[in-house]
TrEMBL record:
Pfam families: GAF, HATPase_c
Transmembrane segments: 6-30, 37-60, 66-87, 94-112, 124-142, 154-173, 185-205, 217-241, 247-267
RNA-binding keyword on record: no
UniProt keyword annotation of Phosphoprotein present: yes
Alphabetical keyword list: ATP-binding, Kinase, Membrane, Nucleotide-binding, Phosphoprotein, Transferase, Transmembrane, Transmembrane helix, Two-component regulatory system
Organism: Entotheonella factor
Domain Histidine kinase, first and last residues per copy: 467-637
InterPro entries noted in UniProt: GAF (IPR003018), GAF-like_dom_sf (IPR029016), HATPase_C_sf (IPR036890), HATPase_dom (IPR003594), His_kinase_dom (IPR005467)
Protein's UniProt name: Histidine kinase domain-containing protein
GO biological process, one term: phosphorelay signal transduction system
Amino acid sequence: MTHTTLQAVLAWIAAALSISVAIGGLAVATRHAVHRIFALVMACLALMQLGAGLSAQSIYGEGLRLLASASLPGLGLLFSVCFARLHSREHVRAMRWAMLAAFVLPLGWILAQPRHVPLNWSGYGLELLILSCAVAVLAQLEKTLRASAGRVRAQIKFVLLGMGCVFAAQVYTASQTVLLGTRPASLIGIEAAATIVANMLMIAASIRRRSLDVKLYVARPFPFHAVSLKITLLYLLLLIAGLPPSGALWAGGLLVITTIVLLSDVVRYESRRLLNRYIFRSRYDYRRIWTLYTQRMAAIVDLQELCHVIAKLVSDTFGVPAVTVWLVHVPVETHNRLVIGGSTVCWDRQTLPSGWEATVQALMTAMRPHTMPIDLASPLRQRVQEGPREILQAMRIRYGTVLVSGHQILGMITLSDRLTREPFVAEDFDLLKTISDQVAASLHNAQVSQHLLEMRRMDTLQTVSTFFVHDLKNLAAKLSLMVQNLPVHYDNPAFRGDMLNVISKSVDKMNVMCSRLALFTHDIELHLAELDLNILIRETVSELEGTSTVHWHYELLPLPPIPVDREQIKKVIHNLLLNAIEAVDQNGEIYLSTAWIEPWVRITIRDNGCGMAHEFLNNKLFEPFQTTKSQGLGIGMFHSNSSCL
């Protein structure tokens, strides 16, 4: 078998593996955008390798390879920005111009000069673009990897390493092509080998976690301090200085292997433990840990970001894969409940075991008297552990410590077993206690800051209302002028049209806005009376049917009369129906249903619109001045919630 034939066989194998992985990614979950983007990246790699395998036999194969290689940078950058990112849309929005350039410029170069062997200005430009985009993708992948910890890192690291292999090979082949002034045929085998390795890593990742739907909090600024940027710059400088291609290739392979080994949490923990045992006096470098925690938590005011940082720091410090920060949440000043503030495990309703809320709440209640961290597997477990043991094991809870600031209990931190199964000793518990005290102080400061911010928002309401009243006065003056001119210009059709236009647009809009804002200046006073809600729903819908062309569907079951405030509950239903109308297009579908679930009456309003993000639904839906609508005030749902409560 000749060298050329061997390269073609490798390229065909890489193409077959890539298309198989792409199909597997789509088969797991097509509804997630990241799965579709991943499938497009792998399909693009398959086309690129297929074209490379056919390039020695047909000119069309080289054209297919060029077209696929020009499409890969944009798709790779899009995947690196979306994968495992919480609020991925914000990251895409921040990188939109870079991604647009990564899509448009390489394809434009290909269309302008489809053939450039040996390289002309078009070929150099294309290779430099591919090189730049590959470096940007590596930096984004590194940023995601840095944000992960514990079990989440173990689940996603092979995907990140696989993509890293692909784009590291892009850096190598593009730099060699620019340096030599032509594209050597040997690069086909290198790209094929890198693609095969990447596919093997993707398959290993799918064994650990089938779904790519992982959410991490990652800071948005571009990581100019990324190690991948520095390594690429050093490599390019060595290449200019005369580093042989074979040396760069071996160094790159060694770097990939070293990265895979060092990303193992077991290896990292054991290395740190051996260093602390045989070189340092104590088990931990307390000065470094204290400095790290202080630096990482000092400038964070967002509570969710702070909890994610805390979980990652605790996981790295103790070599524990599953760390969860639980916060005491007081939604309506009635009773406390625990919510997940941050975790190194991607918990959701599907993965959490049944009965977890009651179990965690009972565990929190039992741990309140304990000032030191607790080992739930110790002989004292019977006096501390509450709830079924199977649920705690499913949630990977072995250790726990309460977060107390002064006399206020803010929540708790739960930890799983170490990867090495080595139990905690007294020194570990002492450090965990010290960390929990510092974490509690940081959480308390963040909560106070958020409360002050909310109070300032409410204080600005009076100022906002003043502006609206001023606008109403301006509108009244405009209407007064129109009334004065009405006897003179009434016979003018243009005048009458302008008058109706102003009234229909300005008066209605200002009245609605002012009526909503007025709800905040006074406490809501309810006047209860027995009422059949089905009658009120049909009455409210009849007032809105003429304003839109949506299709209404009813499933109103018989209801007993219940004591409600007619006007307030009508405003609640009106707000919900308006939101549904605005969320759908002109031919949208809105479904209304009622049911009697003693002692409650349930009203369901459902539409086929675009919906809202889970994070917004869970944390911001009923907060004032929080909205997903470009023209919204974020007041309607807050008022609806206040009326119902």
